[in-house]
Amino acid sequence: MAPRASDLASLRRFGFLTLKSYSLIAVSNAIEALRMANRVTGRDDYSWRVLSLDGAPVAASSALSLHPTGALGDAEGLDVLFVCGGIDVRAATSQELRVVLRRLARQRMVIGALCTGTFVLAEAGLLRGYRCAIHWENLGAIREEFPEIDIVDEMFVIDRDRITCTGGAVPLDMMLRIVAAHVGPARAREIATQFLLDRDRAGSEAQPLAALDPLPPSMGRAVQLMESRIDQKLSVGEIARAAGLSERQLERLFRTYTGATPVAYLAATRLERARRLLRQTGMSVTEIGIACGFMSLAHFSTAFRNRFGYAPRQERQRQAG
After folding, report:
1. What does the DSSP assignment read for 159-183?
2. Residue 91 C-beta-side C-alpha neighbours within 13 Å
3. Using one digit for the tens of pLDDT, what is the confidence trace for 12-47?
4. Burial grade of 247 (CB within 10 A; 0-12, 13-18, 19 or more)
5. Residue 269 · residue 226 · CB < 8 Å
6. How far apart are CA 32 and CA 35, in angstroms?
7. Has residue 1 got a pLDDT over 80?
8. What is the largest CA-CA distance in the chain?
9. Cis ω on the peptide bond leading into residue 147 (within 30° of 0)?
10. What angle do CA 234, 240, 244 make, to 5 degrees?
11. What is the spatial distance between Cα 126 and Cα 94, in angstroms, rounded to a whole number?
C-alpha cells in the first residue's frame, strides 16, 4: 500500500545510519537529492544527519567516511531513519541495534533501508506485512532466509512507514519521488536536471535483467528467449525446451531466482518494456502493445492497469504533468 502524497510531503528531517562497509554511493545519492532540493527551491526545507552506532565516523566499503557523524541516540526528532548497509551487513548488525530500531518504529518514525540495510530491518522484524526491495545481488539469500516477507525485484518500495531501496544510484530516484510530493513534479524535474537525469525511474520498475546474473545457464537461455521474442506468443513448454529443462524445473528455477513464475515474469518484462516505450518514444499505444506481445489493445490496457494502477495513455500524461 503506497502512502499518500501528503504523507511523503511531511518527511523533512532525514537520518542515515551508516553501518560498517556501507555503500557510500547509495548514501551520497540520497543526501545529494535533499541538498539540491534546498538549492533549487531556495529554502532549507530538508535537513539530514549522518549517524553511526557510537557517533564515530564509519568506513564505507570504499574506505572513505562521512563527517560530521552523530550517534544513533541522536535519531530522536527525525522523520525518517535509513539503515545504510553494504558488504557483509550481518557482521555490522547487533541485538542492540535491532532493539533501538524497534523502539523508533513504535514511536512512529518512518524506518527505511538503503542497499543491504533491508537485511537489518528484516532481522528486527520490521518488514512483516510490508513489501520491500533490496539490491539484486542479495535477493536470493534474503528470500530464502525470510520467506514470510514480500521481497520484490523492484528499484525501491515505499510502503506506508517503510521505505526500502536497492542502492547504487537508485536512492536518487527514490528521494526525488519523496521530494516531488512536497515541491511538486515541475520542481522535481528541475532537481533531476541538475543531476543530468534523462528520465525518472519509478520504484516499481524492475531491476535490470543483467542484475539477475549470475544465473544458471539454462535459466539464462530462458530469459534471453523471453527478451528476444518479447513481441511473440511464448508458451512455458516452448521456453522450457529452449532452456533444456522440463516445465517443472523451469518453474522451480524462476521461483528461486525471481520469486515469480515464468508466465508472471514474462508478463512483467513485457509491461516494463511497454512503459519504457511510452515514456521514451512517440509510438501509439496500440503499436506499443503489439511490440510487447499483447494481442489486442484491450488486453494490453487491462494488463497495464492491473500492474501499475492506471491506463497506458495516462503514463504520458503523468510524465507531462
Report:
1. ETTEEEE--TTHHHHHHHHHHHHHH
2. 6
3. 999 999 999 999 999 999 999 999 999 999 999 999
4. middle
5. yes
6. 5
7. no
8. 60
9. no
10. 140
11. 15
5-195 topology per CATH: Rossmann fold (3.40.50)
Over the stretch 161-207, which tens digit does the pLDDT of each residue have?
999 999 888 999 999 999 999 999 888 888 888 888 877 777 667 67
Q: Which three cell numbers stand for residue 283?
A: 509510438
Digit-coded pLDDT (tens) for 278-317: 876 678 899 889 989 998 999 999 999 999 999 999 988 8
d(C-alpha 102, C-alpha 121), whole Å: 9
pTM as predicted: 0.66
pLDDT of residue 266: 93
Residues facing residue 244 across a β-bridge:
none
Which CATH number is associated with domain 217-318? 1.10.10.60
Q: What are the structural domain ranges in the chain?
A: 5-195, 217-318
The 10 Å CB-count burial string (b at 16+, else e) for 197-210 is eeebbbbbbbbebe
Among residues 188, 66, 171, the alpha carbon closest in space to that of 112 is found at 171
Tell me how crowded residue 141 is: count the other CB atoms within 10 A of its CB: 12
User: C-alpha cell of 205?
Assistant: 520498475
202 secondary structure, DSSP code: P
* Averaged pLDDT for residues 244-251: 94
E strands, the chain, are 13-18, 47-52, 70-71, 80-84, 110-114, 131-133, 150-152, 156-159, 162-165
Q: Is the N-terminal amide bond of 68 cis, ω within 30° of 0?
A: yes
